[in-house]
Every structure is written in structure tokens, then in C-alpha cells.
Amino acid sequence: MNITNALYVLMMCFVFCVSTCSAQEVINQSNFKDKIAKDIVVVEFWAEWNKANEFTELNKLKDSSVYRVDIMHCAKLQADYKISAVPTVVVFDNGVEKERFNANIMFQLEADKKTIQTSIDTIILNKFQ
């Protein structure tokens, strides 16, 4: 194997790892309750038609599990959680909604990673008080 082939293989492995490690798991009606039931979970309710405004830093949040729900395929979840605009980010603690960050009239999330991470950190700190 020459150096060019070795570099190509190394580069492909890197691309594969980055793409699979940073991919968000999309959950649905059948596994939603199980996924949010334990610990701190952040769920972004979104839709493919508004992909340009998805919360791209979801996978950078720490000390929580993170998932997406495509409301186009989960109308019951959209109704149950009263999602009126996407993206909407909801922070759950052991299945209980603790905080919600809604999209504005332009279907853009006004909260940023720091704001949502602060919410997660506060939930963790409150467990020790």
C-alpha cells in the first residue's frame, strides 16, 4: 500500500467517524417515552422543511442525551407537547419537562447553546440542593 492509498483510507475513516458520531438520533412515537424517561434529555422538535433553522449545536450539549423528533412523522407528539413552531427545544429531567425554548415568528430558535447548556447545568445543580 503506498502513501496515497494509506492517506485516502485514513481520510475516509475520519469522515465516516465524524459523520456517525455527530449524527442525531431521530426518535418517534414508539420510543419517545423510553428515551426521555431517564436523566436529563434534550429534544429538538423540528421538520425537514425547516432544516435551515435546525439547532445545529444540539450534539454539543454536555451532561444530557440529545434527540430529534420530526414532527412531520410524529403528529401525535407534536400535539401532545403543543409544538406550534419548529425548531422547539425541550429539556426533560426523568421524563418531566423542565424548560422549553421556542422558535420565533421566523421559525428560528432564539436560544443558543450557552442558554440551553445553562438550563441543563441548573437542573444538575438543583439535584444537589
Description:
About 25% of the residues are buried. The chain starts with a helix and ends with a helix. It is built from four helices and five strands, in the order H-E-H-E-E-H-E-E-H. It has one domain: Glutaredoxin (3-Layer(aba) Sandwich), CATH 3.40.30. The longest helix is centred in the first third of the chain and has 19 residues. Strands 1-3-2-4-5 form a five-stranded mixed beta sheet. The chain has about 130 residues and is α/β, with parallel strands linked by helices. Strand 4 and strand 5 form a beta hairpin. About 10% of the residues have low confidence.
Q: Main traits of this protein?
A:
single chain; 129 residues; alpha/beta; Glutaredoxin; five-stranded mixed β-sheet; 4 helices; 22% strand
Structure at a glance:
Helices cover about 35% and strands about 20% of the residues. The protein has about 130 residues and is of the alpha/beta class.
Strand order of the largest sheet: 1-3-2-4-5
Coarse morphology: globular
Kindly estimate the percentage of residues that lie in beta strands according to DSSP: 15-25%
Named CATH architecture: 3-Layer(aba) Sandwich
Instruction: Give the overall pLDDT as a whole number.
Output: 87
Weakly predicted, low-confidence segments: 13-22
- Structural class assignment: alpha/beta
How is the biggest beta sheet arranged?
Answer: 5 strands, mixed
Over the alpha carbons, how many angstroms does the gyration radius reach? 17 Å
Helix content: 25-40%
Number of strands: 5
Tally of structural domains = 1
Provide the succession of SSEs.
HEHEEHEEH
